[in-house]
Amino acid sequence: MTTSIESPRAARTVRRGGVNWEKWGWIYMRVSGVALVVLIFGHLFVNLMIGDGVKALDFAFVGGKLSNPFWQVWDTLMLWLALIHGANGMRTITNDYAHNRLVGVVVKGAILAATVVLIILGTLVVYTFDPCPAGAPTDLLPTFCTGG
Amino acid sequence: MWSWVFHRITGVAIFFFLLVHILDTALVRVSPEAYNAVIGTYKNPIMGLGEVALVAAIGLHALNGIRIILIDFWAWGTRHQKLLQWIVIILWIVLLVGFVPRHLINVFSE
């Protein structure tokens, strides 16, 4: 093993009192990580392994799942935990590699903006979603929409 | 060192997939036709192989993440980090052996 990778390292910052956010971020990555192992492998198993897997995914499939409070809560937890976990990881990587201060601020601003927008969008979709939209072709809808 | 490199690479890749996946799923709020058109692209063979890569990346990131936690919080884990590394690789292979044939049969059938 002669390959070596230059170790990137964020500048050491001196913190004077207050909340140790880096410590809470470190704890969050581990706690959310364990939860996400369960949530994401459950998601992958139900959507890709059971039945016809990826071939069975369509509006009717998602409509059936998101009409069930169990999957609404599951997907909401997955959305929030995964996006914040991913955004915090991207922040760490940005701190390690962006040596120019302005570049770092712009990149982290973009990560934050994308995260906030997608959490709001995703949460609204989960709770305002209509599995039986009026006027849609009935063959595309879950069977419970037509009483079948 | 390599598990650190792969943890970063898979993490970034999964993050970008997550951004796209939330947007495509949000199409259920637009119309059944719009959602079905986009999710249909997940079913073509090239995307099917992409899903194998995605699950491989998620599996490695998840298993290596658990290894990091065990090393951080458990003295035994720190002492046996090399053994844990091998367990990660073995479980990752078991995961893919379970997933890949089943998924590819789904993707390439009919």
Short description:
Chain A has 148 residues and is an all-alpha fold.
What can you see in these coordinates?
The complex is a heterodimer of chains A (148) and B (110). Chain A is an all-alpha fold and 148 residues long. Chain A has helices at residues 21-49, 59-66, 69-97, 101-128. The relative contact order of chain A is 0.12. In chain A, α1 (21-49) packs across α3 (69-97) and α3 runs antiparallel to α4. Chain A has 4 helices and no strands. Chain A has a single domain, classed as Up-down Bundle (3 helical TM bundles of succinate and fumarate reductases), CATH 1.20.1300. Chain B has one domain (2-108): Fumarate reductase/succinate dehydrogenase, transmembrane subunit (3 helical TM bundles of succinate and fumarate reductases, Up-down Bundle), CATH 1.20.1300.10. In chain B, α1 crosses α3 (45-73) and α3 packs antiparallel against α5. In chain B, 22% of the residues are buried. Chains A and B meet through α1, α2, α3 and α4 of A and α1, α2, α3 and α5 of B.
Query: How many whole angstroms does the radius of gyration of chain A measure?
Result: 21 Å
Mean model confidence by pLDDT of chain A? 90
Helical amount of chain B:
over 70%
Say which CATH homologous superfamily of chain B is assigned: Fumarate reductase/succinate dehydrogenase, transmembrane subunit
Share of helix of chain A, binned: 55-70%
Number of helices of chain B: 5
Examine the coordinates and then state which fold CATH places here, giving the name of the CATH topology of chain A: 3 helical TM bundles of succinate and fumarate reductases
User: Structural class of chain A, please?
Assistant: mainly alpha
Please provide the ordered H/E string of secondary-structure elements of chain B.
Answer: HHHHH
How far from one another are the termini of chain A? 63 Å
Can you tell me the number of structural domains of chain B? Answer: 1
